[in-house]
Design brief:
This protein is α+β, with helices and mostly antiparallel strands. It has two domains: 82 residues, no CATH class; 159 residues. 39% of the residues lie in helices and 35% in strands. The protein contains four helices and 13 strands. Strands 3, 4, 5, 6, 8, 9, 10 and 13 form an eight-stranded antiparallel β-sheet that branches. It is elongated, with a radius of gyration of 33 Å. The two termini are 15 Å apart. It is a single-pass membrane protein. This is Late embryogenesis abundant protein LEA-2 subgroup domain-containing protein. InterPro entries: LEA_2, NDR1-like.
Amino acid sequence: MSLVSIESPKHCAKKGLNVHKLSKKLFFAFSAFFTTLLSLILIIWLILRPTKPEFSLKETDIYQLSLSGPNLLNSSIQLTLLSKNPNQKVGIYYDELQVYAAYKGQQITVDSPLPPFYQGHQDSNLLTASLVGAGLPVAPSFNYEVGRDQTAGKLVLNLRVNGRIRWKVGTWVSGRYRINVSCLAVMALGSTLPTGPLRSTQGTACSTALEIEKAGFQRFFRGGLKMMLRGSCQPSSKFGSGRNQKLVLGTLYLFECFNFASLNVLRAERKRGRETGRDDRNLRRRRQEIYSLPLP
């Protein structure tokens, strides 16, 4: 003789109430986490006051700027830039820097690399680059644009610096950011293209733009996901233990631990939902078996 147990509606309602309470706890946990994270980010920002690096153009020399054929340009330019780190507690690693000159939106020199270097707190560095171009194709409107500048009596060049940098706080080093620097050099221009040195010593401030690398963000996200799936809730040793980055370490540690905990909660809720679904199906099947039994 087999025993058949049928759960009451009150028991099923209690299960639904537990799932509702779990969802509410998860919501409050997410809210508390994001509030804490935003507060920590605000505190870190108030302590470090991170500011993007500053660039200014000190000197520009044009040694050659002439057409060697139909729409082919030869150029030779030398420039001097001043780079300054205005941060008091943040250092900057310049990993890759490429410099080139442009005129009316057309690149008139090839990319010239600058050696990588580290810039400490409130340090300044002079950067020099020699830019050349041999037989570079230019638009047919190049002569027309130069003619307009000759009429105006001045030549405006756009000097650009593109590269990647990293921030350093104590022993912690951030991921890579793209840096784009744009400087304008204004020079007096006569009735003909310059064949000799043409110098501009008028110092001008440059505009600087920063953006996080998409590939670097994806690598960080994938690394964090792997960490959660492994069940690791320990801060990485590469962040060091310096006194200046305790808040940074605390934020990263909290982020890793919360991700791991929330993932476990979601797994448990999903598993409970599957088990509840199986219980409901078994209950319906047993009811059908009971109702199909012949009457005594």
